[in-house]
Design goal:
226 residues, Endonuclease III, domain 1, 13 helices, 65% helix, elongated
Length: 226
């Protein structure tokens, strides 16, 4: 089956949501550059936000966030990396945070991961932002292997939060891809399926000149998977 032209998908999204509403939504997904690019502590903070919010209400994380920032020393990776085991043990009884042992340890491991990337490439944030958009599925796999609890949608949403031009394989996006002719089943998490997803987005990017994040948002608005 030939891949459906993205112009058809956009027309369907605009018919469902309205052209003005789609354009307004896309403004939230502009790429960052220069002084807008955050430092590595903000990268770790975004990782922590999405790790903590997995399985619980986002509002709970937002309401506790100032205390979480304080408890984790502003998410400075280098500062966290020199904290003794007692510091991490004490966090598990700290009421300022969401006291989930595996998630706290994931933040500890991701602090080390970010510092390692910074030593290897100068800046972990810039390294991720510079990863070619034509191989986002390779970046998703990299985060899963090198990081902790960054597989699945978590890593994809972290990338979006830091301004990376990436797609998110949400349920609606997966439904759009299937309808457009991409051979995927379920959530599209298989290696071969992800290659097919990347190929589809690469083709749509060439067709439209749009960044991956915009293609992803429009695709999600074009269909109701529920």
């Amino acid at each position: 089956m030939t891949l459906k032209a993205f112009s058809e998908i956009r027309e369907r999204a605009e018919a469902r949501k309205g052209k003005a509403a789609i354009e307004e939504r896309l403004k939230n997904y502009l790429s960052r550059s220069g002084s807008d690019i955050g430092s590595d502590d903000r990268l770790l903070a975004e990782m922590a936000k999405y790790i903590f919010s997995s399985g619980i209400s986002w509002k709970v994380v937002e309401s506790k966030w100032p205390g979480i920032e304080d408890a984790f020393l502003g998410f400075d990776p280098n500062l966290l990396n020199i904290q003794p085991d007692d510091f991490w043990h004490d966090l598990l009884s700290d009421k300022r945070i969401i006291r989930h042992g595996a998630k706290v340890q994931a933040i500890r491991r991701n602090a080390a991961f970010i510092s390692d990337l910074a030593r290897e490439h100068g800046s972990a944030m810039n390294f991720l932002l510079d990863w070619p958009s034509t191989d986002l599925v390779g970046l998703f796999e990299f985060l899963k292997k090198r990081g902790d609890r960054l597989g699945g949608h978590t890593g994809q949403y972290v990338l979006r939060a830091i301004g990376k031009e990436n797609f998110v394989i949400s349920r609606d996006v997966a439904a759009c891809l299937r309808e457009a002719g991409v051979a995927i089943t379920g959530d599209g998490s298989g290696k071969a399926e992800r290659k097919a997803i990347q190929a589809a987005f690469n083709e749509w990017a060439k067709e439209t000149g749009l960044p991956m994040s915009h293609l992803s948002v429009i695709a999600a608005q074009s269909i109701d998977s529920h």
